[in-house]
Design brief:
Distance between the termini: 43 Å
Number of domains: 3
Strand order of the largest sheet: 2-3-1-4
Structural class: mainly alpha
Number of helices: 26
Largest sheet: 4 strands, antiparallel
Length: 726
């Protein structure tokens, strides 16, 4: 098996295991989001945002230094093991000593035991570093991926069990500890190498030179990626940070499952061919396709369906996460395509040059990110995306300067994947997600529209098809199959030659098999009947669906808990958390029989309690004691009447409870619902627009496919005539 096949096979194995790991971590995000509160996540994120820098120091870049080295003796590997373990112990001591400082920064005493628990992880992770590096260096990607999947599964299982038992944020802390311990144990068991005693006569200075530059780069990168969390936690508190953290983790879960493992595959392969510029450039271009077409496109689609995605995944109590996640996902697109520059620095051993660039570039990105702080978590997310766009463009210029890499080629490839494939899919996902009100239906429609857009992009643009073909060949190599042989252009190309018709009524193939936009217009002109038929049928389906969908209106009333003014300001502030808890309890009563039965009797509604409850949605904006009651009904006046009746009945029902349990809190204050002016469903304009776009795509595909089939039939007929004639 040659190096290309090993790289493809390693990438395929890694991505397969990462898919399993992605499922495990996504399940963790969903389950824990439904079991814990934003404040729980925010408290742990406060600690991790600061102490995470110590984890980079613990590694000191020595793991990648060992992988990148062309020669590595057993004695050097042993000394590296003890170096990482010792650095991990020093990090543990320093973080524990800094615990009072972390508590002072956030003014939260409950952070102290969390810091001590997290500090112990550095010793364990330090001992595991060189075991994992040896697996990477030996190209044992299956073993490496197995340890990742099992360790994460153990950590997730521990966290879910503790969350179910009411452990709160300690469930997240336990997950961090168990993942580290399981990783060390599994890596040591699977790795064939065992460290001996350290040897003073064996120098590892060259590894520290490589790792030192890499460490500085990683610390600057870490500061860039986590300064937002630290600033949000310090300024807005743990709840807002918890919301931002959930959006960030939902972004980084798939991003890490692709970028980090592919680095494990790409680095040893690129390092072996760094002295062959032609082979190096070819491997680099192929590796870039994954970041451009897989990661970036997935993030674009995720940004488009952010609202229903968050609702389906996390539940109705996390609506504020959606805009944060959408903006972070856009920034994630630039982070994914910038990963190729990171591989160039590492494979050429240019960590010093990278550090010198980052000393100027990353502080600028931090300033850009912090500029969004006055606008809260949403502003920080938007500014962060702009910062990573600047970071990507500058880094592309720099790798050309220091490594001689063709940056314009990398830029063109990335822009082609983003603008011609990912962006159309993301925009169609956004449009499709607004066709329905139900979150699951909106998510399904958005993803379906995105896939249709991706298919049309592949059909319209030859360069996109070529890139996708290259990725398919990579997938075949990953599965241990040989790549498909190139097609015979003269006989098999069913597509037109510069738009000219041949004398048989089909289309002639070009000499290079390249199809231009003019060729497609020629096919559509020739097959206009099929084109119009498919377009009209699609519009008819869209119109019928819009006409058949009954009109519904949504009216929104509000019920706000009013705090009494008895006591000092400090006492009033202390009662606020109690009011928040009481508000959440009352929100659950809004759809109970105790509230809805009087509403049905008062308005004379011909419905049941269960049916009416399905048409009512109660949400509580973050950091408020206000319940927003949304009611869906067939008429605008009816929706407003039901919303007002539910809010008033809830206020009457809970008034006596408030006076008994919290006598210094007044009853709920009700704000009536305005009568909605427009129907919420069906959204006829959006439905017809989406139907038109989808119809055009399907019509193009149908016309091209029909012409392609006719051309193939005529080619087979010509071959048959030629055989009979001979």
């Amino acid at each position: 098996m040659n190096l290309a096949d090993k790289a493809a096979r390693g990438g395929g194995v890694t991505l397969a295991f990462q898919a399993v790991k992605f499922v495990v971590q996504t399940a963790s995000l969903i389950l824990l989001a439904r079991l814990l509160t934003p404040e729980d996540f925010g408290i742990v994120a406060m600690v991790v945002a600061i102490t995470g820098a110590a984890d980079l120091i613990r590694d000191f870049g020595l793991s990648l230094a060992a992988v990148q080295a062309k020669q590595l003796s057993d004695a050097e590997r042993t000394n590296l093991f003890w170096a990482n373990t010792g650095i991990g112990f020093v990090c543990c001591v320093l973080v524990s000593a800094a615990a009072p400082l972390i508590v002072w920064i956030y003014d939260k005493p409950e952070l102290l035991p969390i810091v001590f628990a997290v500090a112990g992880v550095f010793v364990v992770s330090g001992a595991a570093t060189q075991f994992r590096a040896e697996l990477m260096r030996s190209l044992r990607f299956t073993a490496l991926s197995t340890t990742d999947v099992l360790a994460n599964a153990i950590g997730v299982g521990t966290a879910v069990l503790l969350a179910l038992s009411g452990a709160g944020y300690w469930a997240i802390v336990a997950q961090l500890v168990m993942v580290a311990v399981a990783t060390l144990v599994l890596s040591a068991l699977i790795c064939r190498w065992r460290p001996g005693l350290p040897r003073r006569d064996v120098s590892i200075k060259r590894f520290f030179r490589f790792g030192g530059g890499l460490l500085g780069t990683q610390l600057l990168g870490y500061a860039t990626k986590n300064v937002d969390s630290i600033a949000i936690g310090a300024m807005y508190g743990s709840t807002t940070l918890g919301l931002y953290n959930r959006a960030y983790q939902l972004l980084m879960t798939p991003l890490n499952q692709i970028n980090a493992p592919l680095t494990n595959v790409a680095l040893p392969v690129l390092s072996k061919v760094q002295d062959n510029p032609v082979t190096y450039g070819r491997y680099l271009a192929k590796a870039q396709l994954i970041g451009g077409y897989v990661t970036a496109s997935a993030l674009a689609i995720s940004a488009g369906v952010a609202e229903p995605l968050i609702t389906v995944a996390f539940g109705e109590q996390w609506p504020a996460v959606a805009p944060i996640f959408a903006l972070l996902a856009i920034g994630g697109i630039f982070r994914s395509v910038a990963q190729i520059c990171y591989w160039v620095y590492l494979s050429h051993g240019l960590t010093g040059a990278q550090l010198r660039l980052y000393l100027f570039l990353r502080p600028a990105v931090i300033v850009i990110t912090l500029a969004g702080l006055p606008w809260g978590a949403v502003g920080v997310a938007a500014a962060s995306s702009i910062g990573f766009l600047v970071d990507w463009l500058v880094t592309l210029w720099h790798v050309h300067r220091v490594a001689g890499v063709d940056s314009m080629m990398l830029l063109r490839n990335s822009l082609r994947a983003i603008l011609l494939f990912g962006a159309p899919a993301g925009l169609l996902a956004f449009a499709g997600s607004h066709l329905f009100v139900a979150p699951l239906a909106s998510l399904t429609a958005g993803v379906a529209c995105a896939l249709a857009g991706a298919a049309v992009s592949a059909a319209l643009f030859p360069t996109v098809r070529s890139d996708l073909t290259t990725m398919l060949d990579f997938a075949r190599r990953a599965l241990g199959r040989p790549p498909r042989p190139p097609k015979e252009v003269v006989d098999r190309s069913p597509l037109p030659r510069s738009g000219r018709r041949d004398d048989r009524g089909g289309t002639a193939a070009g000499s290079a098999g390249t199809v231009t936009l003019w060729d497609y217009l020629t096919i559509i002109k020739k097959r206009w009947r099929i084109f119009l038929t498919v377009l009209v049928m699609t519009l008819a389906v869209a119109f019928s669906a819009s006409a058949a969908t009954p009109q519904t209106y949504i009216a929104r009333s509000e019920a706000t808990m009013q705090l009494g003014v008895v006591g000092t300001p400090r006492q009033i502030s202390d009662r606020y958390p109690q009011a928040l808890s009481l508000t959440r309890s009352f929100a659950a009563l809004a759809t109970s029989a105790a509230v809805l039965e009087p509403v049905i009797g008062r308005l004379g509604l011909d419905t049941s309690v269960e049916s009416l409850a399905r048409d009512i949605e109660v949400t509580i904006p973050n950091h408020t004691v206000t319940m927003k009651i949304a009611v869906t009904a067939p008429t605008a006046e009816g929706a407003a009447q039901i919303a007002d009746a539910v809010a008033e009945q809830l206020a009457d029902f809970t008034g006596q409870m408030i006076q008994i349990e919290q006598p210094d809190m007044l009853k709920l204050a009700v704000i009536p619902a305005p009568v909605p002016e427009f129907a919420s469903t069906p959204r006829r304009g959006l439905t017809m627009f989406t139907g038109t776009v989808t119809g055009l795509m399907l019509a193009v595909i149908a016309a091209v496919s029909w012409d392609w089939q006719l051309s193939r039939r005529r080619i087979r007929a010509d071959r048959l005539h030629a055989q009979l004639g001979s």
